[in-house]
Amino acid sequence: MTAVDDRRVHDVFENLVVPEGFKAELIRGEIVMTAGPDKVHNRIVQSVQDQVPSDRWERLQTQDVAFPGEESEPQPDLVVLEIGADDGPGRLVPSPAVTMLVEVVSRTSVHRDYVEKRSIYAAGGVPVYLLIDPFKATCLVMTEPVGTGPTADYQSGRTRKFGDPVPLPIIGIDLDTSRFGTLPPLTATP
What we know:
Pfam families: Uma2. The chain has helices at 3-15, 39-51, 110-123, and strands spanning 22-27, 30-35, 57-61, 64-66, 78-82, 92-94, 100-104, 128-133, 138-146, 153-161, 166-168, 173-175. It is an alpha+beta fold. Strands 3-5-7-8-9-10 form a 6-stranded mixed β-sheet. A two-stranded antiparallel ribbon has the order 1-2.
């Protein structure tokens, strides 16, 4: 894609009118529109948000994040940043201000969450990526981001089953997953 094309995509994305009940994200130069999440998804996000201490952390749902060097403006399910890390106006939180990003897998987001967003978040240096999968009933905590572009990744990853506590030392909690809802397994997931 050329610089002119990149600007056009960004301009279209900035001015896109998103129908009610949908969300739009810019993922590596492509505009991706998806239907709103179901109740299981929303309840999981709410549970995580409620457990992150609000006296130290901002917990922003569906907040757009800017990634330097990436043609991406994803809208994670939950953005966690230290209070005061980004007090500026606007719709974009710069990725260097972010401590943890949370995504809850949906039927249409499996590849994006496990592959594309994983490399985008690692390339942006986000210290913790928490991927919650209600189809597998697991939480994957990824830390130690390295690399740039599509080959960026997290060096460390640990999986916990729903019902087991998920240690998040950088946030200062053990996430209680015992009340996370599940969905019927998908036929093919990464």
